Amino acid sequence: MSDLTAETKTRIDGIVGENDVVLFMKGTPLFPQCGFSNRATSILDHCGVAYESVDVLQDMEIRQGIKAYSDWPTIPQLYVKGEFVGGSDIMMEMFEAGELQQLMDEKQVTKAG
């Protein structure tokens, strides 16, 4: 937890708590900066849900802090209704199995406009 300051934890708590679906990623949905982030945004777009994205490349505290916050070593990271779901590999497995869409439906996530 050494990379997670109280201030950064509070900021991440706020981001995760205020949005149904949050993707911490490298880059933006329009300009992903890595293949895993690109895949993650494509999966969410296919699910047809509204989501917030956080570009960790713009904020080193969040970039390091999110790894400690979730105890997950890689980015991207997906949160649904405040709950950590996983990275792009887990997202892909869940999507292919129909589990990610099911999760979005069960949690009554807002659909993309």
TrEMBL record:
PROSITE patterns: GLUTAREDOXIN_2. The keyword Metal-binding applies. It comes from the Bacteria. Residues 21-85 form the Glutaredoxin domain. GO terms for molecular function: 2 iron, 2 sulfur cluster binding; disulfide oxidoreductase activity; metal ion binding. Pfam families: Glutaredoxin. [2Fe-2S] cluster binds at residue 34. Keywords: 2Fe-2S, Iron, Iron-sulfur, Metal-binding, Redox-active center. The keyword Lipid biosynthesis does not apply. PANTHER family: GLUTAREDOXIN FAMILY MEMBER (PTHR10293), MONOTHIOL GLUTAREDOXIN-S14, CHLOROPLASTIC (PTHR10293:SF72). Belongs to the glutaredoxin family. Monothiol subfamily. This is Glutaredoxin. The lineage of its organism: Bacteria, Pseudomonadati, Pseudomonadota, Alphaproteobacteria, Sphingomonadales.
